[in-house]
Specification:
Chains A, B: Keywords: Amino-acid biosynthesis, Aromatic amino acid biosynthesis, Lyase, Phenylalanine biosynthesis. Two copies of one chain form a homodimer. The first copy, chain A, is α/β, with parallel strands linked by helices. The first copy, chain A, folds into three domains: 98 residues, D-Maltodextrin-Binding Protein, domain 2, CATH 3.40.190; 75 residues, D-Maltodextrin-Binding Protein, domain 2; 79 residues, ACT domain (Alpha-Beta Plaits). Chain A is 27% helix and 33% strand. Chain A has eight helices and 15 strands. In chain A, the strands form two sheets. In chain A, strands 1, 2, 3, 4, 5, 11, 12, 13, 14 and 15 form a ten-stranded mixed β-sheet that branches. Chain A has a five-stranded mixed β-sheet with strand order 8-7-9-6-10. In chain A, β13 and β14 form a beta hairpin. In chain A, α2 packs parallel to α3. The longest helix of chain A has 15 residues. Chain A is globular and about 65 Å long. The two termini of chain A are 28 Å apart.
Chain lengths: 281, 281
């Protein structure tokens, strides 16, 4: 039996790099073979799992420079049957790709908005007058390069090799310690793993409404490795809080936290336990 | 003397609508006349104030559906000389603009990623097979419509009128209660206003590190109207917390909070006091 794995395509995206690394890791751990399936957006890749079109999806959650990927958090809140079964961290290196021979000729730079954001200071310093054009993925940006010698794209060195496009400048990230965290989503949760993600909305917007839930974690000595707010979409000023912690669901102090938490929250959703892998490039 | 006001252009953007409303409000309150100055990005509009190219800038902070505008928060943290002097809330209505006569012909939809996100369900229902192409602003999307009858753009009804492009469908937002909050930035803070924004980083990532600062607000009965985390950009898992509260800087309990807060935070930045205006369309 083969497992199908959805990711944000097309070939050459960072999501694909992570999907390949995950498939490789599964095969080394005597797990079933994986068939990769590209999707045009992150939301559609996640929904493919919910609709049982595929078994798994790999989706980006957070970049160390640009922050959370809002669509991933919103989709997880909406499709609560989706559970996280694995987290993967990918070190990110951006390069400037172009068919042009010199920087002076470049008038436009195409890339995913997160990649443009991660190279913003480099672009302001070395290509201050170029026009920045957002695309749906770093790979999609490459389609503009063949016919236009004044165009460049920000993508990975791997995409340069795959699409046979020269690299004009390498390591152009503004911050060297740039990585993106991904989640693998499935309908079948595990009870293994030392990380847990959950989210909740609050019953009222009153002084201390958020402090009470956070105090519950602090009392049990549980560190929040991440807290992020997203709008409830009902009205401006109402939020859903996404929290990552380091605890297994079978841990007694976590069970205490979860039962106390339900008293102080309106809706509480648990996205499951998982382990963290760092992708070696 | 005239005041210059930077905004995310070109003509027809929601930022311009807010800039015009703010200029109008100033003139009704016996304030100096305002000259509007469009900028290609939010970051450049904010930096124009820091560099003293302009007196003021209007920047989007948060949408009730899509959440915070990351670049605005990051820019404010970096350029701490910028202070918030006013907040404005704009009700948002999205329309589908096209030179095509029928929906069936539409193959691509251009718009700012936030606008595409705010109409995602509508697009999936009525135009499921179109290609979505992100642009730098809702107005920039309009440039593709004149020469391509298979293209549509999501923009405001005001932009449709300004650029004389037909509206194919109106009120296509997924959520009717859609509004965006803006800040007016200046180098000269006011001490008036009932709202205050601040941000801090934490000295250590330990259990309860975030709870301590939040407890200080709760003990003084101060409600947090918003909390948002952004990466410090140093390493994955380190955050800056942005907080909005309802208190004037001269309030004694707030002064207590701010002095206690500096004990539990690494860097603490106060972005100033301001009032909230709702823009009437």
């Amino acid at each position: 039996m083969k497992l199908s794995l959805a990711y944000l395509g097309p070939t050459g995206t960072n999501s694909e790099t992570v999907a390949l690394a995950y498939a490789n890791w599964l095969s080394q751990n005597d797990q079933p073979e994986v068939v990769l399936s590209p999707y045009p957006t992150i939301a559609l890749a996640a929904k493919a799992v919910a609709n049982q079109e595929v078994d798994l999806a790999v989706v980006p959650v957070e970049n160390s420079i640009e922050g959370s990927v809002a669509i991933t958090l919103d989709t997880l809140w909406q499709l609560e049957q989706l559970k996280i079964i694995q987290s993967l961290v990918l070190p990110i290196s951006h390069a400037l790709l172009s068919c042009s021979l010199s920087w002076q000729e470049i008038k436009t730079v195409y890339s995913h908005p997160q990649a443009l954001g991660q190279c913003q200071q480099w672009l302001e310093q070395f290509l201050p007058s170029v026009k920045l054009i957002p695309t749906n993925s770093t790979t999609e940006a490459l389609q503009y390069l063949r016919d236009d010698l004044t165009a460049a794209a920000i993508a990975s060195p791997r995409a340069a090799k795959l699409y046979n496009i020269p690299i004009l400048a390498d390591h152009i990230n503004d911050y060297p310690d740039n990585c993106t965290r991904f989640w693998v989503l499935s309908l079948n949760p595990t009870t293994k793993g030392s990380y847990l993600s959950l989210a909740f909305s609050l019953p009222e917007n009153a002084p201390g409404a958020l402090v009470k839930p956070l105090q519950i974690f602090a009392r049990q000595g549980i560190n929040l490795s991440k807290i992020e707010s997203r709008p409830t979409k009902r009205s401006l000023g109402e939020y859903i809080f996404f929290i990552d912690i380091e605890r297994n669901i079978c841990n007694a102090s976590l069970q205490t936290v979860l039962s106390e938490l339900s008293e102080y929250t309106e809706v509480l959703k648990i996205f499951g336990n998982y382990d963290l892998l760092t992708v070696q490039l």
